[in-house]
Amino acid sequence: MSKKSKEEQEVEVEVVEEVVEDLSPEELLVVENEALLQEVEALKTEYLKAYADTENIKKRLQREQDQSLKYRIQSFASSILPVIDNLERALKNESSDAPLQEGVQMVYDQLMASLKAEGVEPIDALNKTFDPNIHQAMITEEVEGIEPNIVVEEFQKGYLLKDRILRASLVKVSQ
Q1: In what order do the strands lie in the sheet with 135-141?
Q2: Which single residue of 4, 45, 127, 161 has CA 20 to 30 Å from 12?
Q3: What's the CA gap between 153 and 127, in Å, rounded?
């Protein structure tokens, strides 16, 4: 709808005033009624647009809140990954102190169970097809007996938070 200039509006008002002067009271009521009906339609349209905008904002805010709740643990999980790496290194270390090794294993298991309950899962990379979305290739190497593009070694575990990559796996890939 284009906006009318002030001159066009003044001319329109003058024409309407001339026409109105020539009308009988009944005709004047009909013209007034038509003008009011047009105004009501315009207001209904404005209302519906405002209502639709409000509904869209509500839906967007709800989606954002759902996303926020779904991934609320992301920053904590990211900060705890180096602790998990260190616990895994400690578990790989062959120690003669069995109770210490057992204690480290218990802490690791509890931590992994807690993270799993929140949707954090390790990425299973070893002997899988290389996927650049979840793996980061550090080295490529020809390996006999293994077809190309297969993960042959994992340097650092990757993790997913529900359907989002928390950290990509650092891997060696066959050529």
Answers
A1: 135-141, 169-174, 151-156
A2: 45
A3: 8
DSSP assignment, residue 96? S
Task: Give yes or no for a contact between 133 and 158, defined as CB atoms under 8 angstroms apart.
Answer: no
Q: What's the rounded Cα separation, in Å, for the pair 20 and 9?
A: 16
Q: Contact at 8 Å (CB) between 137 and 171? A: yes
Q: Judge whether 158 and 151 are in contact, CB under 8 Å.
A: no
3-class secondary-structure state, position 151: strand
Tokens representing 156?
A: 């650092």
Q: Do the beta carbons of residue 91 and residue 104 sit within 8 Å?
A: yes
- The one-digit pLDDT tens for each residue of the chain (175 residues) are 455 677 766 666 665 666 666 778 888 888 889 999 999 999 999 999 999 999 999 999 999 999 988 888 999 999 999 999 999 999 988 777 888 889 999 999 999 999 999 999 999 999 999 999 999 999 999 988 889 999 999 999 999 999 899 999 999 999 8
Closest CA to 131 of 146, 144, 150, 152: 150
